[in-house]
Amino acid sequence: MSATTSTATGAAIVGVAESDLGVTNLSILTLQTQAITRALADAGLTLADVDGIATTGVSRFSATQVADHLGLEPRWTDSTFAGGSAYEMMVARATQAIESGQASTVVISFASNQRSAASRRLGGVTEDHTPEAQLETPYDPLFPLSYYAMAAQQYLHRFGGTHEQLAEIAVAAREWALLNPAAYRYRAGSLTAADVTSSRLVSSPLTVADCCLVTDGGGAVVLTSLERARDLAKPAVRVLGYGERTTNTSMTAVRDLTSTGAVGSGADAFARAGVTPSDVDVLEVYDSFTITAALSIEALGFCGRGEVLDFIAGGRIRPGGSLPLDTAGGGLSYCHPGQYGVLLLVEAVRQVRGEAGARQVPDAEIAVAHGTGGILSTHATVVLGADR
Amino acid sequence: MTDQPQHLPDVPAADDLTAPWWDATREHRLTVQRCDGCAAVQHPPRAVCLACGTLGGLSQVDVSGAGEVDSFTVVHRGPRPDLATPYTIARVRLAEGPILLTRIHPHQEVAIDDPVEVAWWDLPDGRALPVFRPLNRTNTTP
Question: How many other C-beta atoms lie within 10 A of the C-beta of residue A96?
Answer without folding.
Answer: 16
